[in-house]
């Protein structure tokens, strides 16, 4: 008995060690993306392949898109024994995902990638039809184009966060794909998944899964009716668990008898999925809003809707046009009012009707006037004055537009933040940190005299933040700028505000206060539940990831915040920080070439030795404030 307990304890320890190993996490995710691309390539409609793998590729970015594309290419070769048109889809889609998948333009324009996916399918369909390589009917062509766009948008939204309705649709697409995959002739993975959804999923998920099976045309039995009836059995009073698990098989036999259509091949997979699903409940049910939590959710959603509507009204508010012709008319009136020849002048009315295009010529001369004026010097002087007024009006309107854009941004950020907060209220799960962050800070000046401000604090949902704000220059002014930006960001992030929104809020504040370039921001958002680090840089210099095999430079130097409200300049990178690795953040007081050299020389050394070398190199090269932050992860000691 003692030996069995020791084996169990050892196995549990091994599993926990695997659970906190970032390499295992990365391997599992990579395998998942490859398998998803492989499975989605099997989806068919009317015995014709569909671009679902392309949709997932366009919805991803980086290495995940590459693995999905590889899985899709293999799947199309295995299931359809073809590769020309699907290969074009996936190769072009992968190029688009790598170029645009993680760029700001794709985040700001959510429909860009879905439109590109539809365009890829549409263009390739026309080319292959022209070359005679395919003779797909027009209906199938349109379905492929619409499915590529819709599925890309669907996968993108599901990757961003939990949404039960969208998850039900994803379940339908998964069943449509898996039903074509049968390790043995009588066991289809699609029927297995449908059986599990019938006993543990929500009603819409079961109905959509049945519809997917009917569209796949793999059995003459109406599967929508089977799964809907199986779900309804769960609602009967005094029902026991075993009855619910047998419901899909029983209803399948009943529907076969009623329709007088016999096909028993799906039964083994359907019953197996129902039995397994009874022990492994699937997510996807809409949380019931009860009590004070439900009231709070409703209020948050109403507030979010009001803010979103206000944002839309501000966007749609028309801008008052600038009457340039009136400025020219006013200039003519001023010039003619003081002209000694005004009584006998026949061109007074014509001068007042001149177009506003005259104000667009910076160095307007007498010969460029469309009329002949005996006192043209007076009129030119007034036109130059109107040109100055026009420039002032445009500058003022540009300033007003920046204020308006900043207000619209804040309404958008707050609306999405409140909606996300409402969605999270119904979740009872708690993110248990698997790691603890070890942070060391080193500077060349005392903290009260150092313009570099480093803050370390915990966020929500297992997040931990390390923030390095560098007030430009030295002295008390730089100290105040770094402290102000750091405190504001800390309050926003501690409240659960998304890092992107918090950084853009700081950018708007700097722009509206005419403090462009007053501070740079280097933010590390550490997810203690998986060891991933998101680095956000706004004017900050690169960081360095030191491991036993070498040094990796992360990020590039960019413009500081405050240059523009509408043009975002933050840079973001994501890395997996493993145990034994060291992430180094530095301020701009440390030269980039010297920092890289010190980090390379510091392989195998501890954080303090590396920081001392970096600080020494900074003191030798200049008088600016220099700060070094070393970050590492250790397994958390959870009780």
What's the arrangement of secondary structure elements?
Elements: H1 2-19, H2 22-40, H3 52-59, H4 63-80, H5 84-100, H6 104-108, H7 112-131, H8 138-160, H9 164-178, H10 189-200, H11 203-216, H12 223-233, H13 241-259, H14 267-279, H15 291-316, H16 324-337, H17 348-352, H18 376-425, E1 435-443, E2 452-458, E3 463-471, H19 476-494, H20 499-512, E4 519-527, E5 532-538, E6 543-547, E7 550-554, E8 571-576, E9 582-586, H21 592-601, H22 607-621, E10 627-635
Antiparallel strand pairs: 1-10, 2-3, 3-4, 4-5, 5-8, 6-7, 6-9, 9-10
Folded structure, characterized:
This protein is of the alpha+beta class and 639 residues long. 57% of the residues lie in helices and 11% in strands. It is built from 22 helices and ten strands. The strands form two sheets. It has a five-stranded antiparallel sheet with strand order 1-10-9-6-7, with helices on one face. A five-stranded antiparallel sheet has the order 2-3-4-5-8, covered by helices on one side. A hairpin with a 4-residue loop joins strand 4 and strand 5. Helix 7 (112-131) packs antiparallel against helix 8, helix 13 (241-259) packs antiparallel against helix 14 (267-279) and helix 21 (592-601) runs antiparallel to helix 22 (607-621). The longest helix is centred in the middle third of the chain and has 50 residues, at 376-425. It starts with a helix and ends with a strand.
